[in-house]
Structures are given as C-alpha cells and as structure tokens.
Amino acid sequence: MGVASLFMALAIVGQSYLVVTIIQQLFLDNAAFSSILPAVFILIGMLLVRTVFQYMIKGSGIKMAQTAKVSIREKLLRHFTSQPMIDADKGQSGRKTSLFMDTIDEIDGYFSQYLPQVIQSVGIVLIVWLVIFIQNWTSGLIILVSAPFIPVFMMIIGIKTKDKSKEQLSELAAFSGTFLDTLQGLPTVKLFGRSQEQRNKIDQDSTSFRDATMGVLKVAFTNSLALEFIAMLSIGLIALEIAIRMIIFQNLSFFTGFFVLLLAPELFSQLKQLGSAFHSGRASMGAASRVEDVLDEETTPVSWGTASLKTDKAPELRLEQASFHYEEGNFQLAPASMRILPYEQVAIIGKTGAGKSTLLHVLAGFLPAKEGNFLIDGIAQEKVEKADWFGRIGYLSQQPYVFSGTVRDNILLGSQEEQHDKVIQEVAEHAGIWKWITALPDGLDTIIGEGGRGLSGGEKQRIAIARTLLKKPQILFFDEPTTGLDIQTEHILQKSLDTLRNQTTMITVAHRLHTIRNADKIFLLDQGEIAGEGTHEQLYKNNEMYRKMIHTQQGGREA
Amino acid sequence: MKDISLVLKMMLKEKRDILISIFFGFLAGITAVSLFAASGYLISQAAFAPPIYTLMILVASVKLLGITSAVSRYGERYFSHRGTFTILKNIRLKVYDQIEPLASRLLQKYRSGDILARIVGDVESLQHFFLRVFYPPVVLAAVFTATIFFTMYLSIGVAMTMIGGVIIVLVVFPSIFYLFQKKTAVTMREKRGALSSEFTDYLYGFRELTIFQQAERKKQQLDNNMKQYEEIKAKENRQLAIREAVVIFFSFFIAVIILVQAGFYVSEGNLAGTLLAMLFMIAITVFEDTPSMAVLPAHLEESKASSKRLTEVWEKETQTEVAVHEIETDVPIQFDFKDVSIQYPTEKKPAVRLAAFQIKPGTNIAIVGPSGSGKSTLMQAMLTFAPIQSGQLLVNGEELDKIAPDSLWRQMNVSLQHNHFFYGSIYENLRFANKEAGEEACQEALEKVQLSHFSLEDQVLEKGTNLSGGEKQRLALARLFLRDASVWLLDEPTSSLDAITEQEIMEEIEKATKYQTVVTIRHRLTGLEKMDQIIVMNHGEVVEQGTYMELMRKKDGYFKAMKELENSQLV
C-alpha cells in the first residue's frame, strides 16, 4: 500500500508537471501543436498510472477487510462456543446474530476505506509537499505552517465533542428504534384504540430525531467548513505569494508558479478526504470496540485430553467434591460427591433453582467442575478425549434444536455414517414420528428448521428422540420436560426410554413420580447441595424433606 | 420509475429544503469552478507582469469565491441532511398510515416479527435516496450547465467537448453500472441470509452438534459460507472501486482532451493564450465531483428494491372494506363458534379444525391443551386476528367480519401471550389502557398485580426488555385493571409466575370480573374446578368440553389423562 501511494504521488506530480509543460509551451513558447503531442500521451499514461495505483490501494484495503472480517468472525465463533453449552436462549439469539452479522459488517469500512485513505493521503501529502518545497520553498513553508492546523483543529473538536456525540449517537440509535417499537406494538395499539396518538408520536419523535441528529451533524459540518477555510486560506496565500514573486520581484517563472499552484490543491484535497474518512472510520472503530467488549467477556471452557475410554461398556461416573459456580449471579453448586455405576437409572430431583440442571450439565461435560474431580472410569475428565466422551452420550432437553435442513438430515445427525432410509424409518417409527413424516408433501426431504416448516414442541421432541435412538448412547442425560407436551409424545418418550433401559446409563432430572419410583438411585438437591441420596424407599424412610415433597405432590392421593 | 414513486412523492413534499440545498450545492460548485478559473487566469496574467491593481482585484475575487464556496458547502450539507430526515419522517408516517389498518391481517399472514423489522429496515434505507441518488446528478447538471454556457462564450468547441463529457458521466456510465448492479445485489442478499442462518444453527445447535460429533463438519460449512460471503462482498467493493476509478480517470481524461483542444486553438491563433490555463482549470474542477456517480447505481438499486418491497406489503392486500357496523354496547357479548376452521396462509395444515362451542355472557371459560394445539389461535380469531377459512364465528348472532373491529375491541380486555410495552415510564405504559387513569388508580393497579415495588416513574425499555417475563405478564394485567370491559381474554396470563402469586392474582381478576365474561388459556390444570366450561384442545381440534366434574368423570377422557399426568409431576 505504501509503495502504491508513493507511485500515486509521483504520478500526481508528473501529471501536474506535464500539464504545466504543455501550457507553458503553447502559451509562452509558442511551440507548434505537434510538438506537445508526446507530452500529451505521457500525460494520459500518467493519469492511467495514477488511477491504477489508486485502485490498487483500495483493492488491498478491500482484501484486508476481507481477511480481517473472516478472522474476527472466527474469533467470535470460538468465543461463543467456548461458553458453557447451556440451553439455546431464543431471546439472546437475535443479539448474537446481529453482532456476528451487522456489527462485523460495519468494521468493513475501517479497512476498506479509512486505512487506505490514511496511507494514500500520508504518502501523497509528503511527496507533493516535498516537491513544492523544492520548487518554491516559500510556498512549502506556507503549507508547513498552515496544514498542521487541520489535524490539530480536528483533534480539538474531536476531543471536545467525542464523548458528547458518542453518547448522543447511542441515544439517537435507541430513538430511531421507536418506529419499529410502534409497528411491533400495533396489535396492542389497536386493541386499546390508540392509533391516532401513536401516529402523532411517530411524527414528534421523528422531528426531534431529526433535530437531535442535526445537532451532531452540525459539528461535523463545522469541522469541514473550518477545514475548507484553512485550505482556502493557505492556497490563497500561496497564490498571492507566487503572484508577488512573479510580478514584483520577478524571480519566479510561470512554470514554477503554475506547477505549485496545481499541486497545492491536490495536497489539501487529500487532507480533506482524510478528514471525512476519519468520521466514517470512527463509526467502524465503534463497531470494533463493541466486538472487543464481547470477546473480553470471560468464558469457562471445558478442557479435554487425549486418554481413551473402554469402548464396550458404559463408563462409571464419579464426582469427588466437585463444585461449580457461574460468573454472574450468586448460584453455587456446593462440593458434591456421587458415584453412578454403568447402566444405573439415576434421578435428580429438587425444587426449581436447586441446581438440578447445573449438576446434570457438569456430569454431561457441558460445564467444567471448578474444584474437585470428575472421574470417568477413573480417569479425570480433563484427560479424557472429547470425541470419545461425546461419542457415547446422548442428551434430551426441554428445547431440542432443529437445524435448517431436511427431516432426513436432522435425524441423521445421530449417525456418523450414511444410513439407509430403512434405518431412519425404523427409528422414526419408534419415535412415533414416521406417520407424520410420510404425511409431509416431501416426506424425509421436507425442509424444517429456520426458514423451513415450523414444528410444534411435540414434533421437535420426537425428532430428537429419533436422533438419540439412532445413536444408541451408552449414557443418556435427560432433562425431563415439565409442561407443554401432549400425552401421545409423553407415552412415546416413555416407551423409547424403556427400550434403552438395559443398555444405557440414564441420568434424569426428574419431575415425575413415575421416573423416580423406577430409579435405582435418587439424588435430592436443595439450594445447590445434595440433601439426600438413595432409593425411593430409603429416602422416604430417612429423609424428612423428601417425604414432605412426595406428600405435597400427592396431595393425600395415591399416585 | 414506478418502483420509486413512493419515495419520490414523499421527497417532493419537502420542496423547500430540497430547493435550498440544490441552490447551495449549485453555488458551492459554481464558485469552486470560478475560483479555479480565476486562479488559472491570475497565473497567466501574472506571467505578463500586469499592473498590480488587476492582480489585487483577481486575488480578492479568488478569496471571496473561496469563502462563498466553503460557506455554501456548509449550507448545502446542512439543508440536504435536514431534508433527508424530514423525508424519513414523511415516509414513516406514510408507512404507518398504510400499515395501521392492515395490522391484523398482516399479522395473520406473517406470524413472525421479521416482516416489521424488514419494513423498518427498508424505510431507513430509503433515506439515502435523496442524498445519494436524486440530489447529486441534479446539482452536477446545474453546475455543468452554467459552466458550459460560460465556456461557450470563450470557445464553442471546448463547450461541445464538455457537453459530450457530461453526457458520458451523467448518463452513459451510470446506466452501464446499473445494469451490472442488479445481478450482484441478489446473490449478495442470498449469501448473507445463508450465512446468518448457518450461524444461528451452529451457535444454538452447538450442544447437539457436539454430542453427535458433527460440530467440525458444520464448522467447515460455516467457514465456507463465511468465505463465500466475504468473497462476494469484496467483489462488490472492488467493482465499486473500479467504477470509481473509471469515472475518475475519465474526468481527468476529458480535462486533458480539453487542454489539447484548447491548446490546438491557441496554436492556431483562435484562442487567447491566457485562457488556456483557465480552461484547463475549469475542466478539472467541474468534473471533480463526479465520482459520486459511481456509487449512484448501487443506491438506486437499493432504494428501488426497498420501495418496491414496501409498497408490496400493502398493495398485495386486497382492499376489502372494513366493516363499519358497530356492535351495540349495552348488549352482553356472546360468541358462537360454528365449525370454525382456521388456516394461516403460510401453513400447510389448519391450525384449528371444525371448532364448535359457545361462550355465553358472564361465564368463566378455560381453554387447555398441549402447546401447538390451537388454543391461542381460537383467541386470535375472537379478536379478528386469525383467518377463518370455513365455518362461522358469530358475535351476538352476527358474523364477525361484518362488525367494525374497533367497536368489538372497545369492549375487550386482552392479555396476549407476548404483550407489548413501549419505551417510556411505567405510568405512560399503564395509561396506554386508559388516558384518564390517575396516579392513584395506576398505583392501585400495580398493587393488585403485586408490582408495588415499581414506581410510576420507572422506565420501561423497548418491548419491555428490562422486565422479567413475570413482570411483563403482571404489568399487562395491571393495564387491564384500569379499563372497563365486558369480555376478558387472557392467553396464559400467569405462566411465568410461581403458583402462589398466580393464585393471588387470579383471585384479583375474579374480583374484578364478577359479571364479565372471562376466557383464559391455561397451561396448568389447577384451579379449574370453578370454571363454567373447559374447552380441551389437541392437534387443532376441540376434543372435549364441559365442566371439571364432567370431564373428570369421563372414562379414558383426554382431560383426565392430562390431569393425571400433571398430578404425577413433582415440581
């Protein structure tokens, strides 16, 4: 870029030089027209060089923007995915997507416009000034004295208004959102019969939005006005100085005078362009700092190792005084110790907020144990190979995720290799969704997920069951849904789980008595602590809290 | 032209700002040209050592022109931006006027909020039309015209060359660029959409992807999408840069042509030598602002697409007449569902099939069923927000679509599943339900929903993002306590609250609605014993209806099975 900007500067100098030469020859030397033609062709060549190099500077800026954006997006992805794998939070989805798409797109301008302009301007200003100085040192001196006023002036105004306008601009952004706010609230507006008032509000808001924005813009405009004045003053002084030297002292030729007079505006126009690029560059830098803020947020990734597990049997899980706490919020999972044997049926129960899901996430390797140990078949979790572990577990949650793609793709997620449609049919039948699939216009090829066909909660759940059945995990983690499922799905879920019973360790955050009664082992959680452990009978006999829970639920009835 | 008629119309409403900015733009341009012309003339004169006073006059006029040019530039910027924002306001109001009557029908059609976000995005992008599409060529043309007239006075030939240059820069180049523009814009939008949905899948399906060991594969896909998108974006940027380079080169080139042409006239003795530098300076300055023509096609295409999408939103709607028949206010409202089927246009299956039941005035009705079973759709239908395909929904014996919706809503108190709150104070949000409500009444309403820890001055952010789910539900109910209505429609009004608070608030509602009709969609099956009627939905059909006792007595009844399932729940 720097080299290109030097060449561009030389082309500009050459271009002015040739123009002056041509005019000089025709105007003062009365040269024949044909004698200037070679100069004209060189001049056109210079123009070509100038545009080509200008394009090259731009082009490498664009290239830089491209690589930078890819690498920032990759960083952001790594950051997001190294966060604990908790439930896909729909509310957050929009914000993260907009950061990933819009905010990073905004950074583009910094690399593709601002940076090339800075390099181009610096190179040209330096070279052109040097040429002017050599040609006529007094003009060079005038520029040297006046030009620095431009950046200094801009900085003073910039510092003065930066915080204020930054604050104002973010306020303005919120303000411009009110139109969307109103449109989204239209049903409410109409139900309460307030259409006319809302219309007036849009009118008022837009007008004050305009006035406030103009307040900010005025600063920018005044800035460039000052810039133009300085440039004008400086060029005017140079013109005056040249004229005086040419006429009164007669120690300056037409050639030099005109040459300098052509070069000076080029210099100032570069400075002006730099000034306006500065404004757009700042917006990009704002976007960059927003991304920076997100990247600075601490993450607690789960680390893995290289040790492999025994393949044929479900591993034994053991927690030794393992604890966990989130970065924000005051919830804490107190040091817990537990042992889960292969093929055991385990239930975790407790009130809302007791830490059931957190415990399940630690056991599944979604969250790291902060202190203590988590042993898988006697090997510390962080030494176990990640793929080996995830290759043998399954997880059914309250909100299974459906990917945009075909039904087939979504079910095949459960398999590492290509599967015959027959196998898919088998698991889909087990999951009670085969009939639904055959009723679809495109069958297994129907597009679902974002942008595709919408699914009900029950349908999503069954797709997830089909996936899990296809995978046949050694350990199944199951966050039992509390509400919202229809009875059929409920039955299917139960049946499918029963088929997995003897070949899978099942760890369930349980909400149903049915699951609890059938469990080999129950862990009762209370405020992040294990408050009881044992079979239903043992706990019922020995644990006051457990007894109370069961009693309130049954409400005196036999369940 | 038809595509952008919307924005043109809205723009022309602001004649004053437009004319002023064009005037200043012209002044700025023409003074800049004169400035450089004068300095070119000055230097040529200086070569002949003329009397000092001619020089002083020239220098003074150069100064004066410089100042005028800078000040006009300021005025141009100020008024053109002010105009732009006023135009933005006009477009917003226009869009609001068009969409407001269609709101319920649009919501039937597009159930997600995306359409609204798109509308807002389109409105925002139209603000560039004036500044970047309409305005630059007008000002350029004006400056060119004036300059060409002046040049004609000096040399007809040079003026002719200039006219040719103007035609190429203002007409030929933009047209050619525009043809290329269309193609890239479409692929760009597609790639962007693909990347965005890949990202959502990867991020929110990450747990599933890890467990099923597909994260690497998906990451690869995402990386590919990312690179493709950046590739096409870079291509677009490069295209813009090339166009700019072409225009810049051409404007220098035309200046050189003029120089050569004028030079030829000088050597032939047809033109005074002192004018040579001046003509060159004029040419180089007048073409200086033309690079804006390189980006014009991109903005034109964007404005056209936005404008078209916007008008489509309301033009596609068949302008069915809004019923004007007002419902009588002193007659209690009764709803009759007669085999009502409802199907959203974007769905293949009906959301509700052959629903038949009655809602008598003053009764207490619960609608229950699993998620996605069509409960909310029934309620939307009573609000005229759902497209009824077959069957009849009668209100006091009259078909729903014959009744002015406003008159119906006036008698209703509604809490939807997602209630909307506006940017403003709690007080403002409460008074949205009733303009006359005083501070005391509002405070009382807050107490009823156990939100007395809020003060009326507390701020609510857009869409209530600073409120928790439970707070939003309670604030929505508080609004209703301020408003008299004979029918209350509540869609899972307390699903985010704990059981105790839920019960207490439901009691408050009962107190306030002794004689009113209350229809509640319930997610829990508790407290249904007192209901006059329970409507049980599954897969879009009303599978059972009756009182609690009736339903529980049914052998193998759906409701009974649901209730037993719930009873076996521990928490």
Key attributes of the depicted protein:
heterodimer; A: 559 residues; alpha/beta; Rossmann fold; 4 domains; 6-stranded mixed β-sheet; 4-stranded antiparallel β-sheet; 12 strands; B: 2 domains; 18 helices; coiled coil (chain B); AAA+_ATPase (chain B); ABC-type transporter activity (chain B); transmembrane (chain B)
Can you offer a commentary on this structure?
- The complex is a heterodimer of chains A (559) and B (571).
- Chain A has helices at residues 2-27, 33-81, 90-135, 137-146, 149-176, 178-184, 186-191, 195-249, 254-296, 356-364, 386-390, 407-412, 421-430, 434-439, 457-471, 487-500, 513-517, 536-542, 544-554, and strands at residues 317-325, 332-340, 345-350, 371-376, 379-380, 393-396, 405-406, 447-448, 475-479, 505-509, 521-526, 529-534.
- With 559 residues, chain A is of the alpha/beta class.
- In chain A, the strands form three sheets. In chain A, strands 6-9-10-3-11-12 form a six-stranded mixed sheet, with helices on both faces.
- In chain A, α16 (487-500) links the parallel β9 and β10 (505-509).
- In chain A, α13 (421-430) crosses α15 (457-471).
- Chain A is elongated, with a radius of gyration of 36 Å.
- Chain A starts with a helix and ends in a 5-residue tail after the last helix.
- Chain B has two domains: 5-314, ABC transporter type 1, transmembrane domain (ABC transporter transmembrane region fold, Up-down Bundle); 335-567, P-loop containing nucleotide triphosphate hydrolases (Rossmann fold), CATH 3.40.50.300.
- Chain B is built from 18 helices and twelve strands.
- A six-stranded mixed sheet of chain B has the order 6-9-10-3-11-12, sandwiched between helices. In chain B, strands 2-1-4-5 form a four-stranded antiparallel sheet, covered by helices on one side. A two-stranded antiparallel sheet of chain B has the order 7-8.
- In chain B, β11 and β12 (541-546) form a beta hairpin.
- Classes of the chains: A alpha/beta (559), B alpha/beta (571).
- At the A-B interface, α1, α2, α3, α6 and α7 of A face α2, α3, α4, α5 and α6 of B.
- Chain A: This is ATP-binding/permease protein CydD.
- Chain A: It is a multi-pass membrane protein.
- Chain A: Its main location: membrane.
